[in-house]
User: Which sequence fits this backbone?
């Protein structure tokens, strides 16, 4: 199974990926033109412009394939139609951090929207994994780089 298969992403993730795909297609054309120009400069064995253009081509094509594959294989959810019975990608979860003795509100998002500083966390993150599938009243434990944390689910709602 490749990395994109089985990923659950939001419609915002889908829009972000589609936008990136368009940009990559434009970059592909631009890189092709750069290669054509660099070829015109003569001996390719000592042509740094050509080497750089070919490296750029490899990066663009690699990312292009990754984005296309993600768009084909990921599962996209409409945040507004999700149940609030259980924590899922696309829901907002208020928790009580039992170690810090404080409340936090996390928004579970797909990887393109992830921003830990804003508490927008991916379902693939340690806290996201612990929260997925939990219900109000459940206590979950997340294995984070800073150690294990326990959280009680207080509320699940739409974004």
Assistant:
């Amino acid at each position: 199974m490749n990395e994109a298969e089985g990923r659950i992403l939001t419609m915002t993730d889908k829009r972000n990926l589609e936008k990136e795909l368009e940009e990559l297609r434009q970059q592909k054309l631009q890189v092709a033109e750069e290669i054509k120009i660099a070829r015109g400069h003569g001996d390719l064995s000592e042509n740094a412009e050509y080497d750089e253009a070919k490296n750029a081509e490899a990066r663009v094509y690699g990312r292009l394939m990754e984005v296309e594959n993600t768009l084909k294989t990921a599962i996209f959810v409409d945040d507004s139609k999700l149940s609030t019975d259980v924590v899922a990608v696309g829901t907002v979860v208020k928790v009580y951090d039992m170690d810090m003795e404080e409340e936090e509100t996390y928004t579970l998002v797909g990887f393109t929207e992830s921003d830990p500083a804003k508490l927008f966390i991916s379902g693939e993150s340690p806290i996201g994994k612990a929260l997925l599938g939990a219900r109000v009243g459940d206590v979950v434990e997340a294995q984070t780089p800073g150690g294990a944390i326990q959280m009680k689910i207080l509320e699940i709602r739409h974004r």
Remarks:
- The longest strand covers residues 147-158.
- DSSP finds three helices and seven strands in the chain.
